[in-house]
């Protein structure tokens, strides 16, 4: 179905090709998971299939990519629209209409299909994706999982034979992610659609893959094959696979179910061993406090009578489904929203009334879209401006960035960076000021496992130095590895608040993979298990 013949892609001014020597074939009717470290060329490879590379992104494409016999170098994206459907990391960015039904019909209108055909296909797609009750709903009123399903539906109505998905679950809570992945499985199994999917959170998707396409990013050629065999050679792997390697299991497990079937001997080896805790917090000094805080966003309260205290040196995970009010709470603590009732105080300041130059030294927010913080023309200029704004020694921001994202070019434009690259740059910018309270909204979106490990190290150091950190996240593995405390929000209210290990293990939704495999024992991460076995 999709054939790569000695494919390489070279962008202007880049020191090395984004892709080099890719030579393989992806069969029809399979789910192929694309994995590899950040910067390995995953988005570029997806772009060569849809025709966005080189027609939209520029660069030089060497070799040949064919999809059902069509050469994507000779066919522009519009010439492939009936064959290849593409859904990017931000589904809202591709919406062009106002309601669900209009969005599903738009692609067919562009191709000039007959009204009767369009009506039939819209109804079929509404039923296939479970969207019938939402047909007249404004797109702006949908949850993250609903938006992702609508984005997939908008390309399915033209009946593509290939579906290209770039990070389809990166912004979704665990429940919404399962909804989207169930739809993808149905397309593959029932309709014979060929799906090429790139995803950093491998723990969510690896068990569904028929094949894995690995881009190692270290000079080795691309590798396509059986998921367990390929992951054994991969520099990135989900926790359940890393646990299987640690335990010496062969073949490596791809799902929690597979691992649990073999975990009894491992549980016996770990019986009686003490679980190494996350570096202990010493919460003593309150940094931020919300008291019966209510915040309205439009007609509906997004935060309802919420009371919360955050302490210096404490790292807190804020979890909950999409639309629970997490981003609104972070924005209120950062001064972006005025409370409807109740109070919010950060380092003695009322955020929405404080002067920006006073507030920025006490609280920093990295939003879901880091582009909101980036205004300079180059990475170097962004770092220099951050040093100046924070009154920091020149080079401070660049040093932080080098730790978070080694190899990021000084002259690169922030808008040309990957999702992960923009996020790490925004993180470096806000961390330069050394705020008393750091607020992070989905801080691992677009980051691979190595980048997450670097982020964990830096946030741990900041907490040890006294910074209070509140991070809203759907990444349960990050919460288990990093945080001392976990909060769960639902409909604007706090429904859980306690030590992270207690909160996540009590929930089948928020429990990390290791906890599910080794339950009822209280292990959360592969690192903890390795330390337990070493003892």
Task: Throw out a few tags for this protein.
535 residues; six-stranded mixed beta sheet; alpha/beta; single chain; Rossmann fold
Topology of helices and strands:
Elements: E1 2-10, E2 19-26, E3 31-35, H1 42-50, H2 52-55, E4 60-67, E5 70-71, E6 84-87, H3 100-111, H4 115-128, H5 144-156, E7 162-166, H6 174-191, E8 194-198, H7 202-205, E9 211-214, E10 223-225, H8 227-231, H9 239-247, H10 256-262, H11 264-270, E11 286-297, E12 300-311, E13 315-319, H12 326-333, E14 341-346, H13 356-359, E15 363-366, H14 379-390, H15 396-404, H16 419-431, E16 437-441, H17 449-464, E17 468-472, H18 476-482, E18 485-490, E19 493-499, H19 500-505, H20 513-518, H21 526-534
Parallel strand pairs: 3-8, 3-9, 6-7, 7-8, 13-17, 13-18, 15-16, 16-17
Antiparallel strand pairs: 1-2, 1-4, 4-5, 9-10, 11-12, 11-14, 18-19
Helix pairs in contact: 3-4, 3-5, 5-6, 14-15, 14-16, 15-16
Largest sheet, if any? 6 strands, mixed
Into which percent range does the helicity of residues fall? 25-40%
CATH-defined architecture of the largest domain: 3-Layer(aba) Sandwich
Q: Taking Cα atoms only, what radius of gyration do you get, to the nearest Å? A: 23 Å
GO molecular function: ATP binding; ATP hydrolysis activity; ATPase-coupled transmembrane transporter activity
Keywords: ATP-binding, Cell membrane, Membrane, Nucleotide-binding, Repeat, Translocase, Transport
Family: Belongs to the ABC transporter superfamily.
Function: Probably part of an ABC transporter complex. Responsible for energy coupling to the transport system.
